[in-house]
Amino acid sequence: MSRTAAKILRKLTEFLSRIINTSSTSTSEYRRDRAWIEVSTENLKHNIKTLNKITPEFCDMMAIVKADAYGHGAVKVSSFLNKTGVRAFGVATVDEGIVLRKQGIRGEILILGYTDITRLDQLIKYRLAQTVVDYEYAVKLNSYGKPLKVHLKIDTGMHRIGIPVTEAEKVCELFRFKRLTICGIFTHLCVSDSTKEEDIQFTRNQIRVFYDLLHMLKQNTIPIPKVHIQSSYGVLNYPELNCNYARIGIALYGTYTSFGDRTKLKPDLRPVLSLKTRVVLIREIEKGDSVSYGRTFLAKRNSRLALLPIGYADGLPRSLSCETGKVLIHGQYAPIVGRICMDQLLVDITDIPEAALGEIATLIGRDGVNEITAAEVASSSGSITNELLSRLGSRLERIYV
Ligand SMILES: *Cc1c(COP(=O)(O)O)cnc(C)c1O
Question: Do residues 250 and 337 make contact, with C-beta atoms less than 8 angstroms apart?
């Protein structure tokens, strides 16, 4: 087979797989038989609009869709964002980038983390931009033999990845590398969520040394590529910065990282994700009976329990066991009793006599006047929303409403 024929065949296969993927996204009821995630595209759209209003006009959103778009489904979310005009995406790994391209996502896709040198051909094939994680890495990229699209990461104090901001000559040197197409330069703030005075000082210093570096580049007649600094909290607490991109993750999904976080701007962001399951079994136990592994729950009264077919293998933290976590059934709170198992858990519905078989139980989201937010669940389990959402399992159906 000729190379052209092979190429056409590949494109055709990709196209067909895209069509098949789209048609399997019906919201038919049978996909809500066990445990599922509902993604509100309406709220997603609202959040994009709201966030775009906060940032300066020339600043575009780079939607961060790593870790399957924080559990929301990267392909679906990115296609939706593409349709609403978002043209830049951030992922963590080369494979995440490839999946998006194969599904037809257009625009800039930046890999925010390290990519192994053995994968550089895929960067070109799938038109992915790579973050330069340090100077030596840039040397390796430059010696690959073909031009690569990159964004330079500058370390201004987080000390994770990036070229130290103090090594200005090395940064200048990178702009003379023949085979690096430098499309962006960026840094990452590590305490931009904090309202403590010393953290604000630290952040201001990160911003200052970064702009000093850009100033130095300009003095050396180096054209400045796209500049980006802020992630969600950077935008919410330092909205005035002059950047070409804002790398927005958690805020796009309509939630704060930590429960009770205060920010300078308080835009009306709406939660995009709900986590739901169904009551599949109801049972009565007697006062003194124990429940689940370890017999940690002893009924203080004759009780009515509901079995929910969701467990820690679905990403629900096991630390929500033993009345630490709760669900909403019939608009009312029911505590999780006993230990959460891998695939199922029990809740106490003694005080919700109207709760019936087949009814929906909400683990994250709204039911009537009551709501359980992702930030609350994360906080009860000793974590942050970003971790909770990104670990929601692949066994859960994602339904787009
Ligand atoms: C994950 C990530 C973001 C997004 O952070 P949020 O707090 O979710 O907005 C931005 N920039 C980089 C480099 C990241 O790794």
Answer: no
Q: Per-residue confidence at 31, pLDDT binned at 50, 70, 90? A: confident
Give me the percent of the chain exceeding a pLDDT of 70: 93
Residue linked to tokens 């429960």? 259
CB-based pocket (< 6 A), ligand 1: 64, 66, 112, 188, 231-233, 247-251, 386
Residue nearest to atom 6 of ligand 1 (CA): 249
Would you give the DSSP letter of residue 59? P
Closest CA to 226 of 152, 147, 174: 152
Q: Which residues in 299-372 belong to E strands, given as ranges?
A: 303-308, 326-329, 332-337, 345-348, 360-367, 370-372
Alpha helices in 177-291 (DSSP H): 197-219, 232-237
Query: In the chain, what are the helix, strand and coil shares in percent, each to the nearest 5?
Result: 35, 25, 40
**114 has catalytic annotation:** no
- The pTM (predicted TM-score) of the whole model is 0.92
Query: CA 147 to CA 145: how far, in whole Å?
Result: 7
* Residue count (the chain): 401
CA distance 52 to 61: 7
HSE-CB at 394 with a 13 A cutoff on CA atoms is: 3
